[in-house]
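User: Hi! I'm working on a homework problem where we have to compare a predicted structure to a textbook description. Could you give me the structure for the chain below?
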Amino acid sequence: MNVASYVDHTILKPSTVLDDVQKLCSEALEYKFAAVCVPPPFVRACREFLKASDVRVATVIGFPFGYSIPKAKLSEIEQAIEDGADELDVVMNISTAKSGLWNELEDEMKLLLAPIHSNNRKIKVIIESGLLTDDEIVTCCRIYGTLGVDYVKTSTGYSEPGATLKAVQLIRANLPSGVKIKASGGIRTLSSAKQFIDAGANRIGTSAGVDMVKQQAEE
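Assistant: Happy to help. Predicted structure tokens:
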């Protein structure tokens, strides 16, 4: 297992500056990470830094709380696509899910999926699994699996708990095989990343990817 190929090299802190993003992109190129994940205002710069490389550019939508109205999320998506994002990590409306308004959650995703897939981009739906019951996680998987999202992602990293092995295993058991999983939120060691990959994660969202790769090289 080459852990670098699973890593979405991430910086999403509110104090992020352009130098941080350039360093992130340089590390992604050096260590051959799958993607970088950056705040929306930095997508265009990342696209320029990473041109002619295989590193994908990801950004976040409705981040971190998910309760932006669907039209606002749609506007963010359209701008991110215009700026050159390959992948969009979209926070679902967690409040809607916790209220049991599943039809509204489904309608939101139908609206947001259309421009993403019509432009050949990928969507990772962040369900914030640490705030959901097992039954709510299963219902999210049923809705998003049926709609054909590309990934279900565990967490934003802004709510506790973040990713758990139990949640990843539950998500994997309730998604179609073609829908992938991104685990994120508190994954900071190589051993932890390996456990999540073994549990079914196809991507690992982390700011500790460089340390993980160096540790694997030492092994």
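For your comparison, note the following. Residues 102-118 form the longest helix (17 residues). Strands lie at 7-10, 35-38, 56-61, 87-91, 122-126, 151-153, 180-184, 203-206. Good luck with the assignment!
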